[in-house]
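Worked example (supplementary).
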Amino acid sequence: MFDLLFDASFLASVPRFVTPILLAALGGAICERAGVFNIGLEGMMLGGAFFAVVGAYFSGSPYVGALAALLAGMALGAIFAEFHLRRGGDAIVVSIAINLLAAGMTTFLLRAIFDVAGAFRDPAIAGFARVHIPVLEDIPVLGPVFSGQSPLFYLSLALVYALHVFFLRHRLGLRIRAAGENPTALKAGGVNPLWVQAIALLMCGALCGLAGAQLSISNVNLFVENMSAGRGWIAVVAVLLTRGRPWPLFFIALLFGAVDSLSFRVQGLGLPQQFTDMMPYLATLIVLTALSWWRLKRQS
Amino acid sequence: MSGRAERLMSGDLLPWIVMLAWILAILFGLMLLVGANFGEALSGFFNGAFGGRRMAYLAATLSRATLIVGMALSVMISFRAGLFNIGGEGQLVAGGLVSALVAILLPGPPLVVLVAAILAGMAAGALWALLAGVLYLYVGVPLLVGSLLLNFPIRYIASYLVAHPFRDVPSGMLQSHLVPEATWLAYFPGFRLDIGILFIVATSIFAIVYSHTTVHGYQARLNGLSADFARTVGLPVRKLTLQTLAMSGAIAGLVGAIAVFGMHHRYIDGMLVQPLYAWTGIIAVLLVGMIPWLVPLSGLFFAALQTGAAGMERAAGVPKEIALVMQAVIILFVASRVSGAILSARSSGTRGGDDV
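After joint prediction of all chains, the assembly is encoded as:
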């Protein structure tokens, strides 16, 4: 049973599932550090997934698709900023609205643009080709894991490190942290924290959009209504658990992604699909409960 | 309340008009995008929401409103107490599933079965909400994500139960067997609307009376306005939290039972999830800033928006998902004016007293 589950092809499938959660969670981390409570990751991801298909379908290039996804995510980030930061709407309320807006807009446009309901699949949707890395791909175990993945996977790995350095050294990264930890000090330094938070929301939207692109033009080449299916919420949990620190976030995303991939894998073993579908959410709940419990114990 | 109304009428009117203009502009923009005929769309909307042969569409609006208002009341009770329970969907599914299974499995006189099934559904909803509450209070899992994540397991458990052990196999669909016909909620004479709406009218009255006149409702509101204050003056905050969540969950469970016995007469996979009843309920509460007596009207408004959009689709070919977009747009614009002010009363402490 153990060998059946954890073989090389399982390991090779893990990055596919880690990438969307990791990208969205990194985006969420920027908001978290900037002091914006953003639980609209799910919607930003869904919007990205849809516009990735739109871009890839009309241009024939997955890179244009990814760009469209990025811009769609940023547009939702801008809407979030307008209504939360400028008009003073509650962050939770605005997040809920963003999630509903993405769900409604994608199904509406699915029918308006492609004239289909439920799902859109077409050979003209240009998906990402796998990136094969010479030499590395011939190494057993490591090869299939680190070679032959979507470009977005490599981007997400690079972003973990980049974001770590960004928060540590970069001027904007420091300002983002200041906006979250001590906005008054930031203001005293002549920087408007609201602008910094708006930039954080745009960056978050961009990353969530790319996370959506990974779902729709990399893992598969199609769009299905409500395609993000709760992964944005798993990313929210990852952000909460790590308080937006990139490296811990990477490991949590790795864990959640691995469970996601495992749940896909055990479907072949005769378990009812409902149980395997439930696994990622159950794992998220269990990890969340365990870590919260551990924190509570340590405090008291 | 009158003070607020006067403020609305005098100086603050302009922003509301601007807001309405924005919302209408977006609506027309979307309709332009799909090349719809405005006149046909408009008449289709009103026919779909309030018309139909022998008022069939009005009945559809009202039965949808029954479920949306029920879910809105459920979350309102939590939200007013400062508890961000957004897991109404899970509690709704738990209630619908358990009440259907009880009615299918329990022998006995129909009325007894019906009452037992509804109570079991309410208990299931309450337990599911309590689970989120226990994780929040005793383990430190934030209620917002804890309650939301609990939506997923119950959704799949329900899906499994009606796909395997309790599936009505000959029907070919993922659904349970029918509940006994004698337990179905009666229709109003000459109108395809079941009496489930009366349960929700009663629940609305209960929620308004509870919020405005009972000690429990008052204490829960205090906790919502300032949790620190509630703790400092020695309110039993934990007990209050659990009781409030149980009440929320029980109402959601009741809504699930009404959907089973009034509308579908069985549990169909996804029947409570796909129409987004729980999320519509949440935004219905946010639209009116958690003011109890306005919640039923707000729920009715969103129900009409949805059935009206379906009418617009039939008449003018506008995809009915436009309703979902417009709901989100309305909430974005209104949230920043209404809910923003009232939710932020949590921190300011001085305002917000006038709607208690």
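Two points are worth noting when inspecting this output. Chain B touches chain A through 49 residues (CB under 8 Å). The radius of gyration of chain B is 21 Å.
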